[in-house]
TrEMBL record:
Recorded name of the encoding gene: SLC43A3
Name of protein: Solute carrier family 43 member 3
This protein's UniProt keywords: Membrane, Transmembrane, Transmembrane helix
Membrane topology classification: Multi-pass membrane protein
The keyword Aminoacyl-tRNA synthetase appears for this protein: no
Pfam family, one: MFS_1
TM region(s), chain numbering: 12-30, 70-92, 99-117, 123-147, 159-180, 279-297, 317-337, 358-380, 392-413, 425-444
Listed InterPro entries: MFS, MFS_trans_sf, SLC43A3
Length: 499
C-alpha cells in the first residue's frame, strides 16, 4: 500500500471528478436536449397548426402543449433528482459503495438506452428515462463524495469540487446538441453514453472501496487495486479498532467539558440527528436559498423579456451568457479551500487552548455558510434591479452562490454528523428541500396570472426573504452549554454545536 497508495488515491480522485463532470448532473442541461427533441418532432402530434399558415407548417405554430409536455418531464426528473437522494443515501449507507454504484450504473445505462432508441412515436418513454437518469447521477455523486476522506486536510475542497463538477455536467447535453447540428445522430450520442458504463463498472471494482471510506483514515487502509494485497482479517479488525479510537478522540474534549456528551454523540441514532435543531435550521437555510435559485431560473426568460422590452435577439444573447456562466466547477473549490484553511487555523488554536477538535471543525463551516448567504442575497438584489447590463453580475453571483450552496451543504453534513449517517442525512435534506421547491409552481402561476407576467414583485419578496435567511444559521445559539470549550475562551459563532 505504501508504494501504490498515493497514485491509487490520485487515480480515484481524478476519475471520480471526471465521472461527476461527465455523467452525474447531465439532467440540468435539459434545454439543450429539448432543442434536439423538437428537431426530431417529439410530441409534435400534440400541436395544433396555426390556421393562418399554409402547407406543412406545424413546427412554426406556437405549440404550447408540446412545451408543457417537455416541462412536465423536467419537473418530474428534477424533483426525483432531489427527492430520491434520501433512499439513495440509505442504499449507500446500508449496502455500501459497490452495491450503490451497480444500481447507479443499471439506472444510468437503462436511461441512456431508452433515450437512444426512442423516437417521435415513443417519446412518452422519456417520462421513465429522465428520472432514471437523474437518480443514477445522484448515486454517482453520493458514492464519490467519500473520496474526500482519502485526503485529510483537503477534504472540504474535494467535496465542493465534486459538487461543482456535478453542476457543470449540464454541458454534456450542450455537446450532444452541437454534435447533432454537425450530423451526429441522437442515437449515436446516447449509445456512446451507454457504452461508457463499462468504464463505470471497471472503476467500481478497481478504484473504489467495497464498503465506505472511513474518516479519519486508518493506518494501512487499502481498497480497490490494493485490496488483494491488503491486511489480513486480524489486521483489518485491528485497523477498525484503531479507527474507532481515532473517532472517539474527536469527541474527547467535548466529553470532558460536557459530561456524557461525547458518549451520547457516538451512541445516538439516525433519527435523533434528523430531528435535531441543528439539522432543522440547516434544512430551512438550504430550502430558502434553493427555492430562490429555482424560481430565478424558471422566470429568467420573463425577466429578461421585460428588461429587453421584447427584443428577442437581446434576450437570446443574455440567455446564452447565463448558460455559459453555469460552469460551476471553476468556482466551487474556492469554498472548500476556505473551509480547509479555516479548519487548519482553528485546529492550531485548538491545540493551544485544548478545545474540542470536533467543535473546531464545525467552527470552520460557519464563515462558509455566512458567505453563501451573503452571495445569495447579493444575487437576489441584483436580479430585482431592472437594469439589463447588471444581469451579467447577477449571473456570476448566481453560479457562485449556487456552487457554494451545495458545496457548503455537503461539507457541513460531513463535519456536523457521524459519517455512518451521511448518506441518509444528505438524502433527507435534499428530499425535504425538494418538497419545498415545489412552491415555485404556485409562485410561477402567480407571476403568469395576477402579476401579468411581471416577476419583479416576486424578486423583491425573494431578496427580502433571503435577507431574513441570513439569520437562519444551521447552528442555533446555545452558548451556555459550551462555555468551557476553549478553557474560558469560547469561539464566537460556534455556539450550539453540541446539540
Amino acid at each position: 500500500m505504501a508504494g501504490l497508495g498515493l497514485p491509487l488515491r490520485l487515480a480515484t480522485l481524478l476519475t471520480g471528478l471526471l465521472e461527476c463532470l461527465c455523467f452525474a448532473g447531465v439532467l440540468f442541461g435539459w434545454p439543450s436536449l429539448v432543442f434536439v427533441f423538437k428537431k426530431e418532432h417529439y410530441f409534435e402530434k400534440l400541436c395544433e397548426p396555426d390556421a393562418g399558415l399554409i402547407g406543412n407548417a406545424t413546427e412554426q405554430a406556437d405549440c404550447k402543449v408540446q412545451d408543457e409536455r417537455f416541462s412536465l418531464i423536467f419537473t418530474i426528473a428534477s424533483f426525483m433528482n432531489n427527492f430520491m437522494t434520501f433512499p439513495s443515501g440509505y442504499v449507500f449507507d446500508r449496502f455500501r459503495t459497490t452495491v450503490a454504484r451497480l444500481i447507479a450504473i443499471f439506472f444510468y445505462t437503462t436511461a441512456t438506452l431508452i433515450i437512444a432508441f426512442t423516437s417521435a412515436g415513443s417519446a412518452v418513454l422519456l417520462f421513465l428515462a429522465m428520472p432514471l437518469l437523474s437518480v443514477g447521477g445522484i448515486l454517482f455523486l453520493i458514492t464519490n463524495l467519500q473520496i474526500g476522506n482519502l485526503f485529510g486536510q483537503h477534504r472540504s475542497t474535494i467535496i465542493t469540487l465534486y459538487n461543482g463538477a456535478f453542476d457543470s455536467s449540464s454541458a454534456v447535453f450542450l455537446i450532444i446538441k452541437l454534435l447533432y447540428e454537425t450530423g451526429t445522430s441522437l442515437r449515436a450520442s446516447f449509445i456512446f453514453l451507454s457504452v461508457c458504463s463499462t468504464w463505470h463498472v471497471a472503476r467500481t471494482f478497481l478504484l473504489m472501496p467495497r464498503g465506505h471510506i472511513p474518516y479519519p483514515l486508518p493506518h494501512d487502509y487499502s481498497y480497490g487495486l490494493c485490496s488483494g494485497n491488503g491486511p489480513t482479517k486480524e489486521e483489518k479488525e485491528a485497523a477498525e479498532q484503531e479507527n474507532r479510537e481515532l473517532q472517539s478522540k474527536e469527541f474527547l474534549s467535548a466529553k470532558e467539558e460536557t459530561p456524557g456528551a461525547g458518549l451520547q454523540q457516538e451512541a445516538r441514532s439516525f433519527w435523533s440527528y434528523a430531528f435535531s435543531l441543528r439539522f432543522a435550521w440547516h434544512l430551512v437555510w438550504l430550502s430558502v436559498i434553493q427555492l430562490w435559485h429555482y424560481l430565478f431560473i424558471g422566470t429568467l426568460n420573463s425577466l429578461l423579456t421585460n428588461m429587453a422590452q421584447g427584443d428577442k435577439e437581446l434576450v437570446s444573447s443574455y440567455t446564452n451568457a447565463f448558460a455559459f456562466t453555469q460552469f460551476g466547477v471553476l468556482v466551487a473549490p474556492w469554498n472548500g479551500v476556505l473551509m480547509d484553511r479555516l479548519k487548519q487555523k482553528y485546529q492550531k488554536e485548538a491545540r493551544e487552548t485544548g478545545s474540542s477538535t470536533w467543535v473546531v471543525a464545525l467552527c470552520s463551516t460557519v464563515p462558509s455558510l455566512a458567505l453563501t448567504s451573503l452571495l445569495s442575497l447579493g444575487f437576489a438584489l441584483c436580479a430585482s434591479v431592472p437594469v439589463l447590463p447588471l444581469q451579467y453580475l447577477t449571473f456570476i453571483l448566481q453560479v457562485i452562490s449556487r456552487s457554494f450552496l451545495y458545496g457548503s451543504n455537503a461539507a457541513f453534513l460531513t463535519v456536523a454528523f457521524p459519517s455512518q449517517h451521511f448518506g441518509k442525512l444528505f438524502g433527507l435534506v435534499m428530499a425535504l428541500s425538494a418538497v419545498v421547491s415545489l412552491l415555485q409552481f404556485p409562485i410561477f402561476t402567480l407571476i403568469k396570472g395576477p402579476l401579468q407576467n411581471d416577476p419583479f414583485y416576486v424578486s423583491s419578496g425573494g431578496w427580502a426573504s433571503l435577507a431574513g435567511g441570513l439569520g437562519l444559521r444551521p447552528l442555533p445559539p446555545r452558548t451556555s452549554r459550551l462555555e468551557g470549550l476553549s478553557k474560558g475562551h469560547p469561539k464566537p459563532g460556534c455556539d450550539g454545536l453540541d446539540m
